[in-house]
Amino acid sequence: MRAGAAPKRPAARPAPGGARPGPDLASILAALPTPVFLIDAADRFRYVNPAAEQFFEASAAQLVGRSLGELIVPDSPLHALIAQSRGAGAGVTEHGATVDSPRTGPRSVTIKVTPGPSADEVVVALEEHSIARKIDQQLVHRNAARSVSAMAAMLAHEVKNPLSGIKGAAQLLEQNAAPADVELTRLISEEADRIVALVERMDMFADHRPIERAPVNIHEVLGHVRRLAESGFARQQRFIEQYDPSLPPVLGNRDLLVQAFLNIVKNASEAAPARGGEIVLGTRYRQGVRLALPGAETRLELPLVVSVQDNGSGIPEDLQAHLFEPFVTTKSRARDVGISGGRGLGLALVAKVVGDHGGIVEFESEPRRTVFRVFLPVAASAEEES
Fold this sequence. Notes:
Radius of gyration: 27 Å
Structural class: alpha+beta
CATH architecture of the largest domain: 2-Layer Sandwich
Order of helices and strands: EHEEHHHEEEHHHEHEEHEEHHHEEH
Number of strands: 13
Distance between the termini: 44 Å
Number of helices: 13
CATH superfamily of the largest domain: Histidine kinase-like ATPase, C-terminal domain
Number of domains: 3
CATH topology of the largest domain: Heat Shock Protein 90
Largest sheet: 6 strands, antiparallel
Mean pLDDT: 77
Shape: elongated
């Protein structure tokens, strides 16, 4: 919702006689983590701070002089707020707005527009909501993983031993069973084996030991995942790579990262069309905010972003809040929304693996575009903090 126009600001008073001038304004703006930029009367960029460069994923040299309309879609509320600020000669604010750029996609922000130093110029500040969402999602995903861990421990103790007895009894009955009953005894044995396999698959959630980590080249991990997918479940779909080759290594466990990203890619493959389906693998470095999560002894710095995008029909809204919880769909529904094998454990495992790495996983979904993003620590950052 939009806040009302703020009252006009009084003119700045000159510094008292003899007082030294304050710090350079550009250096102050450069130190801000909030994207700030100046738009002139012709709606062109006149100045951008480093945070704005990161927001638009372009350098100041690329942005200054370009039209705002080239980077922000025409129906964005940002254009209306700029016009409103110019007309009122005062600052305006809109919370929960979406700034959509063909270059970076939609971003949820608070927009603040105030009059600039010259006529019809405006200063725009954007406050992203994604950091708060990442904290909330991280806690939700970790709680979901903990619930699976408790369930796995209970099943391992309470189910596997009785199943072993049931299978043994069925095998004994089969020795003296009539031919018509042999099929039933074998069915009992097969179903017992299937349940044991499911319980063993969940055993990995009950493992709370610290993972062994070392510097890992994330592009080698993604390359291995792509080769596995192209030789199997995604052989008819097209892969697109959008990598930043200069990325530093991740501090992680290679095998676990392969498992996690293979699950995400399999989800994308199942959601995308069998023919004409596209899966986009991307990496980039995004200097972010250090996050202090409840229960964590150190702050997290997660500048390395890995994304997996598909062109499927999207995730239904009623499932999005529960997507990382186990057993949330039937097998047929799971195929539509990309839950591996219909068991609903693939993304729960992803949440656990990413959480064990101290990372965050998030997603956004709309028809023809679903993106999963994994934020991970780089090896250098983790070593410096230890």
